[in-house]
Amino acid sequence: MNKSESVVKLSGALAKAQAEMPAVEKNATNPFLKNRYADLGAVIEAAKPILARHGLSVVQMPVTLDNTVGVTTMLMHESGEWLEGTILLPLGEEKGKSVAQVVGSVITYLRRYSYASILGMYADEDTDGNKPTTKPAPMTYEQAAQMATAQGTKFLDLTNDQLDTVITQSKNPQAREAAQIIKNKRSEAK
User: Fold this and answer.
1) Where are the beta strands (DSSP E) in the chain?
2) How far is it, in rounded angstroms, from Cα 166 to Cα 178?
3) Is CB count within 10 Å lower at the N or C end of the chain?
């Protein structure tokens, strides 16, 4: 990973963006494995308005080295701060595909994973009320206390006003739950 000399403003903006980032809907099906996944367009569309609100942008560039192909993904902040990472995979052959098609598939695949990774995004199934969902076990106070923002600040160290902001504005259900647990525990202690 490479980064600008300072990433203070970028880190703050990313923490706020991650608090709003939704789970990306799995909108595509792998024709061979039949598993569902969020395609590159769904990942980008889910993040785009949130990034814009916080002065963030992502640029991705294809790269090659020897017999590998990959992607460099750069996260930038309007302040000029940035961080980037590169991932490479060996170039192989796929039956029925030209070299250009294989390269295109690898680049698209790596863009999707790199884009989501640099932003801390994840994909989840959109049940749309059609499938029963199992509710995860409630978070414990200890788990909530250990949760940290992208800046490394633990939820336990947030003020009540900051916790209220997370509870009312975060699109991340785990962040909302952790903030509520910490706030409830503080109220019980009074």
Assistant:
1) 2-3, 24-25, 28-29, 36-37, 56-65, 68-77, 82-90, 123-124
2) 9
3) C
Residues 100 and 173 in one domain: no
Q: Is residue 159 part of a domain?
A: yes
Q: Are residues 24 and 79 in the same domain?
A: yes
Helix (H, G, I), strand (E, B) or coil at 26: coil
Q: How confident is the model over 14-73, as pLDDT tens digits?
A: 999 999 999 998 888 887 778 888 899 999 999 999 999 999 999 999 999 988 999 999
The structural domain count of the chain equals 2
Domain that holds residue 19: 2-124
Neighbours of 105 (CB within 10 A): 13
- Long-range pairs for 125-132: beta carbons < 8 A, 24 or more residues apart: 125/25, 125/26, 125/36, 126/25, 126/26, 126/27
108 & 150 share domain = no
Residues found in the chain: 190
Residues 95 and 180 in one domain: no
Ordered strands of the 82-90 beta sheet: 2-3, 82-90, 68-77, 56-65
pTM over 0.85: no
Q: Is residue 112 part of a domain?
A: yes
Element (H, E) at 109: helix 99-119
Cα dihedral 4/8/14/20 (nearest 10): -170
